[in-house]
Amino acid sequence: SRRFAGYGLSARRKPATRPARAALRRLRPKTSYFSLIHFLLNATVPSITIYTDGSALGNPGPGGYGVVLLSGPYRKELSAGFRLTTNNRMELMAVCAALETLKFEGSDVTVYSDSKYVVDAVTKGWVFGWVKKGFAGKKNPDLWMRFLGLYRRHRVRFVWVKGHAETVENNRCDQLAVAAANDRTRHREDTGYRPE
Question: How many CB atoms lie within 10 A of CB 193?
Fold first, then answer.
């Protein structure tokens, strides 16, 4: 006797009857191999919540960013300060720094930010038009290119939140950003900043 591929069922050489063919169809897997792999990959993709904020004292002036990352029981805070920068650069750099810490590609990420500059540029699709035009007349192309490389590695959703309001983690990011901006002993150089 021979076997039907993959099902371990014996069959005679003569053609199967209609009821037999119907029975075999019922035995076939309803989920393809690739669908199963897709399901398993999605089931193991981490879900991450990110809060970000940026600050610049004087704008331009000393600046800093703050980040809070949350995933299940895990929490991580990031911050850094710079000698001379702008508020928008710190807002965008905070998002870049957060995405750079993610270990697994294809992560499901929600970013909460009080920066309309960052959130609207992504959710309204402006940045994708800017890159097609080589960022002609636009500021911070270095950070936007850095962001886009990271953005394409994950599934990222942006949510705007009101700054200095009741969002606890956003307020924590603000504290981290302001503290980093004020700590001049640990300032770095924002090498991409170009004075106007």
Answer: 18
